[in-house]
Design brief:
With 624 residues, the chain is mainly alpha-helical. Helices cover 57% and strands 3% of the residues.
């Protein structure tokens, strides 16, 4: 099973340092077990026994035992050191495995990296059913598998849920009060069905209001899962910091592992490395057992910010005798694919199957994505044939995944075939996938026709309905059509939110009107309830950097911080690029990075060297 961590290329006398992730005291017998024919571990002088994620050790590999690598170089490194090795040539971008509604996309990885922001309470989501991500299923419905959740959708829709959703122009408190006064059903099963439906629609703000009303009016005897749900909703609507404060108000008897794992997952979703590690350590301090779920969260986090630490998590899982889940394997497969290590990716798939776990549709979609990016179209098509199965009509929900994948392969005929299989009654997710797919194929008229059919199918139109076509116009640089569509949205009373802001910004950037895009973002930032997406900032920031406009690039950099985004290497790479293009020195840039706990990889280090005000060259040496 643990062969998945073995190097695909032998490491010859390569000393590796590792930041341990074991949240337990380091014992001498542990050191002995590693030193006998496997590895030698020695502590740094500044370390102390019992330190957790901040603990640094040096791992000297004596064979290829259990080393998971990116290509030919190990993930392992000690914190604070400059990265070295072939994987450093990779950018810090990543593709989100858990973003299942975008899993077929082949977008810029940094754009995908902040998909979590779309999970914030957003009026754009109120009418739109979105498949929960695998990460959310693990977090909130531990005892319910995916097939059970899909089958539950065939049940009758709750009348209370309909009443809440119809309360678009008023507080749901009024609706709930009237419902209660009329003596209508407000049993726990009814409440559970309403909460699940609200979550499926990403209507987290209404779900939070509902939860608070139930507690305030003593309509529900709160148990641990109710508190878990509240923590998650607060984190999504107000941020994980507010959720952490709320945990202190929860009765101690209900402050269990589920509550803290929920907080951990939400800190991971915001890429807050320090807080995620802090919560992981706190869970161990409180006596909770280390779980596969918690380790998966760290894998997900390190896949984004520091892939070298993936090996450390796997060492911890092996020590704790934790078996990888399907989600674990999916993360590792994606990490291998990102490093262009196709053979390593396939080896993990074989290991996964040997352990009796067959790749699910999300994992197969990841395989297809990396095969396409690697130019291996035949392999991609073979996997997609497996995904289709023998009777796609009986598994119509697969259509939304296949449509963008065929579009990425340029298979217009297959996109048409899959869309026709959706029949006369396609679901919302089918509409969205088809519009996006035809947009990628540059078939705008077909995308418009499907969009118009969608508007006729749904009586109530939200901004999300329009945002998908707006993005098609942006990708195809159709500014005038985009403007007309925005006017149509306004005429229909749609409330504009982050998805629409993002599409509008890209629309103007693609048209060369960066300043106009900046104005739109500025207005969006004045909205106190919702923040713009990560990609909305970076698409403008990249344009300013290309121009060598240091002032506006720095402005965008600071605006991202003020909006609550944790600074990552991605932002610094863009910022340094602005100084390079302006042919200006960047004084104090290394110190700024250190203050934000960012350590340059090979690519960023090369950029920094170009803007070092005190760098010396052969010419300056001669002049001296």
């Amino acid at each position: 099973m643990w062969a998945l961590r073995r190097s695909s290329n032998p490491l010859k006398n390569h000393g590796l340092s590792i930041r341990t992730l074991q949240a337990c005291h380091v014992k001498s017998e542990t050191l002995d077990s590693y030193s006998k024919g496997r590895a030698d571990i020695c502590k740094c002088p500044q370390m102390r026994t019992g330190s957790y994620l901040s603990l640094r050790t040096f791992y000297h590999n004596t064979d290829v035992y259990s080393v998971f690598t990116m290509g030919s170089c190990s993930f392992s490194s000690h914190a604070g050191a400059e990265s070295s090795g072939e994987e450093d040539d990779l950018e810090d971008g990543f593709s989100e495995l858990e973003a299942s509604d975008h899993v077929g996309g082949f977008q810029d990885s940094d754009g995908e990296s902040e998909h979590e922001d779309k999970l914030l309470s957003d009026p754009e989501s109120d009418d739109d059913e979105i498949e929960p991500s695998q990460n959310e299923l693990e977090l909130l419905d531990i005892d319910t598998n995916v097939s059970e959740k899909r089958s539950s959708r065939n049940g009758k829709q709750s009348e209370l849920f309909k009443a809440i959703m119809d309360a678009s122009g008023q507080s749901i408190n009024v609706v709930l009060k009237k419902w209660d006064q009329e003596g209508k059903d407000m049993s726990r099963p009814e409440i559970a069905q309403v909460m699940l439906s609200l979550r499926r629609l990403r209507s987290f703000w209404k779900a939070l209001q509902f939860s608070e009303w139930l507690e305030d009016h003593k309509k529900l005897d709160m148990d641990e899962r109710d508190y878990v749900s509240r923590v998650d909703l607060i984190a999504k609507v107000h941020g994980p910091e507010k959720a952490e404060q709320y945990i202190e108000k929860i009765p101690k008897s209900f402050r269990g592992e589920l509550v803290y794992r929920t907080l951990l997952a939400n800190y991971v979703s915001t890429t807050n490395l320090n807080k995620a590690e802090e919560i992981f350590n706190k869970m161990k301090d409180l006596g909770f057992s280390i779980t596969t779920f918690a380790c998966n969260q760290l894998l997900l986090l390190y896949k984004r910010v520091d892939k070298k630490k993936i090996a450390d998590v796997l060492l911890l899982m092996e020590k704790e005798d934790l078996k990888p889940s399907a989600f674990t394997y999916g993360l590792l497969i994606d990490a291998k694919g990102q490093s262009n290590d196709i053979s390593g990716m396939e080896q993990i798939v074989e290991t996964m199957k040997a352990e009796g776990i067959e790749p699910n549709l999300d994992t197969q979609s990841i395989l297809v994505r990396h095969y396409v990016l690697g130019g291996l179209k035949e392999k991609a098509e073979a996997v997609m044939r497996e995904m289709e199965g023998n009777n796609l009509k009986e598994n119509r929900w697969v259509c939304r995944i296949l449509l963008p994948l065929y579009a990425a392969l340029g298979k217009a005929d297959d996109v048409k075939r899959i869309w026709e299989l959706c029949g006369s009654n396609p679901k919302f997710s089918d509409f969205i996938a088809a519009i996006e797919s035809y947009g990628k194929l540059k078939k705008v008229e077909e995308a418009e026709a499907i969009f118009n059919k969608m508007l006729k199918t749904y009586k109530r139109h939200s901004s999300r309905h329009y945002s998908v076509l707006l993005k098609v116009y942006a990708d195809n640089k159709m500014l005038l059509k985009g403007k007309d569509l925005v006017k149509q949205m306004a005429d229909n009373g749609c409330q504009i939110g982050p998805l629409t802001w993002d599409a509008l910004v890209k629309l103007y950037v693609e048209a060369g009107e960066v300043e106009k895009a900046d104005q739109i973002l500025h207005k969006a930032m004045q909205n106190n309830r919702m923040k713009p997406l990560f990609n909305t900032f970076t698409v403008i920031m990249d344009q300013y950097a290309k121009r060598g406009d240091i002032h506006n690039t720095e402005k965008m950099f600071q605006q991202m911080k003020r909006s609550g985004y944790v600074t990552r290497a991605r932002q610094f790479q863009c910022l340094v690029n602005a100084y390079i293009n302006a042919k200006a020195p960047a004084y104090g840039m290394k110190e700024r990075m250190k203050a934000d706990n960012i350590f340059p990889n090979k690519m960023l280090a090369a950029q920094l060297a170009q803007v070092d005000a005190f760098r010396r060259s052969a010419a300056t040496d001669l002049l001296d």
